[in-house]
Amino acid sequence: MAIEPFLKKRGVEQSDVGKESYLQSQEDRAKLDGLYECILCACCSTSCPSYWWNQDKYLGPAVLMQAYRWIIDSRDDYRKERLQALEGAYKVFKCHTILNCTKVCPKGLNPALAIAEIKKMLATS
């Protein structure tokens, strides 16, 4: 399963990708604060018991926080598909909210909150 860490637009030919800027309001941009600052050090994932025992199936906090970053980006047209890709026992629901990930983040980010937000979105979609 890939997170696809890039904007996806409907109705844009592959040859036209990158030719146009997609603007975003300051409010929508502010929603990404605390997500894009991740330096991908994986301290959160290596501190996660669910990840220790299920590395081959569970994506872990670092990847799930990045998934959330792309799910909530107002410029992306594939929110529904991104959420569907995270359904299942070994995707987002393997997180047991132990919060080790948030405690060890050297940037002070909150992967557990991002994962909880994905869970809420899946529950209400």
UniProtKB/TrEMBL annotation:
PROSITE patterns: 4FE4S_FER_1, 4FE4S_FER_2
Assigned EC number: 1.3.5.1
Pathway(s) of this molecule: Carbohydrate metabolism; tricarboxylic acid cycle
Known cofactor(s): [4Fe-4S] cluster; [3Fe-4S] cluster; [2Fe-2S] cluster
Gene Ontology biological process terms from the UniProt entry: respiratory electron transport chain; tricarboxylic acid cycle
A matching Pfam family: Fer4_17
Reaction it catalyzes: a quinone + succinate = fumarate + a quinol
Record keywords: 2Fe-2S, 3Fe-4S, 4Fe-4S, Electron transport, Iron, Iron-sulfur, Metal-binding, Oxidoreductase, Transport, Tricarboxylic acid cycle
Keyword Cytoplasm: no
GO molecular function term, any single one: 3 iron, 4 sulfur cluster binding
NCBIfam families with a match to the protein in the record: dhsB (TIGR00384)
Name this polypeptide is given: succinate dehydrogenase
Organism: Bugula neritina
